[in-house]
Every structure is written in structure tokens, then in C-alpha cells.
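Morning F.,

Quick status update on the modeling queue. The single chain you submitted on Monday has been processed. Sequence for confirmation:
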Amino acid sequence: FCDDKKTLSNTSFERMQKMEYLCNKYKISADINLSDKSLKNPTYKMPDFYIKIIDAGNILYMTDCSYSECYEKTNSSKFANGIKQIVQFVNKTQGPYLIHCAIGTDRTGIVCAVIAAMCGATIREIEEDYCSSINMGILEYRGPGAVRYSLNKLLNIPFTKNIAEIPDLQNLVCSYFINEGYLSKQEIDEF
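C-alpha cells below.
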């Protein structure tokens, strides 16, 4: 993904290589870019799979998906509209999908946590997935507290309450988006 190791930190170069390998392995055909910029960068050589995604127009740029929105403001209309855009994009675009931000852990992890909850994953599965981002070589530990904080904030659950004890997280998250008018039941069912 990048020809010049000197232009990126050592971990960035390794992460880009790993990402390219995994995208080719899983035949990624659509991109959900949570970063506030395009991947079109003069220091990157676009891999073939990504050129195909660009040519097919299978990219969703989430320009309003800031770090702050994903952690501190998951109960904001901006965040909810971002999830709405993702659901609608997935419903009309053939996958598999690459979902990423600049580093691929923070915004990506929280957005994927909400998506996973909507798809029926348990809080334990979501936390394990979030914490596994360390395997992508960022050399920073990501703990489950961020996921719990963001989901509690999204669902307006007091931070003193353990979200792991809440039955049917899927229904709770989906109901939030339906009841607040961001998504229809049909859109969620198709998702």
C-alpha cells in the first residue's frame, strides 16, 4: 500500500501491508472511510483491490465522524446520522466491507461496536473484537472501557450500570435508532 517505508512510521507501514493482505484475502469490495480525508495520498500506491472499489464507486466517506463524536457524543444526531448512512450504504452496496479511520482502532472500533450490537453480538464479543485491534500493530492497548462508555452514552444508560447485565443489547440498540427516527425497522432488518 505504500512504496516508501521512510514516509510512514514503522507500525504504519506494517499495518498497511497487513490491511492490504487481509483485504485481498477476504475480497473486500466496498469501503466505509470514517477518516476525514480520502485515501488518495501521494505517498501511497493504491493497491489493485482499492482501485476496483474506487472505479465501482463503492466508497462511503464519513466526513462528520470525528473522534469526539464516536466517543463522547454517541448520543448526538451527527453520530446517529453516520450510523444511518452506513446502514443505508451496506443495504445497497455489495460487500465484504473495509471499515476504517486513520489508524483503524478508535472511531472504527466504536462504529463497529454499534454495528455488531445491531447484528446481535454480545457485549463480551464486542469488547474482545475492540481489544483485538492491538493485533494490527498500533502498539497501544485498547481496553473495553471505551466501548462501554460509548454504548452507555448512546443508550442513555447511567455509567454506574454494567451494560453487560442488560438483556438483549441488539434490541436496545436497534430500538434506539428506530424510536429516534434515524432508521426504519425494514432498513435494520435488511442490514
